[in-house]
Amino acid sequence: MNDQRRDRKDKHLTKMRCNEELRAKKRQIHVILKKCTSDQTEEDLQLLKESKSLVELVLTRKQRLELNKERIKEVEDEPQVLTDKCHLLSKLIRESKGMVVYTGAGISTSAQIPDYRVYDFLFLCITSTDEMGRVRTKTIKKASRVIIEKYYTRLTIDFHTNKRICEEIAIIPSKRLRNQIAGFVTHLMRRIQRAPIRGISIKLQEEERERRDNYVPDVSAIDMDVIEVDPDSFLMLKEMAMDKISGLQQTNPTVPFRGSVRP
C-alpha cells in the first residue's frame, strides 16, 4: 500500500517538474522571439531550431492576443463600406423570421463599458442553464410596504388573493414583478400577525397588536364536557373562586411505570 502511494507521489512530482520546465522554456522562447534577428545568439537559434512545436505554440498565442487587441479598437469605416454594411443588414432583416438587438456596442468599449464582446456578458450567458434565484430588490420591498399601508384591510395571507388585489390597485409592468410583489406582500402579512416589522406604519401595527390582544375565539378552550385537573391546579382554581366551573373534575396524577421490577 505504501509502495503504491509512493509511486503515485513520484509520478505527480515528475509531472509537476515537467510542466514547470515546459513553462520556463516557453518564457525563454517568448523572450528570444521579442529580440531582433541581429541580437539573437547562436544558442538562441539552436533552441528555436530544437523546439519548433513550442515556437509555433508561442507564435499562435501571440497572434491570438494581437487579434484580440485589434478587435477592441474603435475604427470608423469609409462611407462606401458603411453603405454596403447597411444594405447587407437590411437584406438580412427582411429575410429573417426573428431578430435580437444588442445595443451599447459602439463607443462603450472605448469607455471601458462591457458589451457583447466581453466573455462573461449576455451574448455568451444567454444559453446558460443557470436559473436566477429568488431575488427581492429594493423596488419590490418598497412597493410591498406601500401597498400594505394603503390596502391593509383588503389584503390576506393568501398569495393568489393578494396577486389579484395588486393587479387591481397598481400598474405593474410585468407578471413576474407582480408575482414577486404579491409574494412579498403575503410574506409581510404573515409576519405582521406575529410581530412588528420595520418600515411599516407604527399605527397600523399597533392596531394589529390590539386586535391580537382582544381576540376572542369562537369556541372557548374550556368548553368541554369534562375538564380534568390535578390537585394542585384544583386548589389554585379554588383560591381564584373558579372551582365551580361545570365539568371540572379533580384527578390524581399517575406516574408512568418505567423499567422492570426486580424480584
TrEMBL record:
SUPFAM superfamilies: DHS-like NAD/FAD-binding domain (SSF52467), Rps17e-like (SSF116820). It comes from the Eukaryota. GO terms for cellular component: cytosol; ribonucleoprotein complex; ribosome. GO terms for biological process: translation. GO terms for molecular function: structural constituent of ribosome. The keyword Chaperone does not apply. Keywords: Ribonucleoprotein, Ribosomal protein. HAMAP family: Ribosomal_eS17. Belongs to the eukaryotic ribosomal protein eS17 family. This is Small ribosomal subunit protein eS17. It comes from Medioppia subpectinata.
